Amino acid sequence: MRSQHHLKSVSGKLMAQRTNIRQNREASRMRLQNLIRLASEIAGELDALQLSGIPVEFLPINEGIDFFEEVRGFEILLIKQAMKCTGGSQVKAADLLSLNPTTLNSKIKAYKIGYGRS
What we know:
Blueprint (H helix, E strand, L loop, with lengths): L1 H50 L15 H19 L4 H7 L4 H10 L8
Helix pairs in contact: 2-3, 3-4
């Protein structure tokens, strides 16, 4: 009788783990889709810049660049694009970028990124 109860307990735990795996897989799939959509929108923005006559090319690394300034600029671009995609929702933008909302909020404050809903 005891082993039968133990078997049911283990079976229940396995079912719960299976459900968690499915949910995590679905959440990961949705994040990936969001990132793909975001990358596509960024590519569209770059195309628009090229069409407007502003050259978009790789940085001349052989001349030296400020790595951290370039990363900062890219982070700002990603954050602004995510905020645009979500209508200004930091929670949704954080999810798109696979960040914690508090991390995104901290970056928005540090970079002084303003976002008006227009």
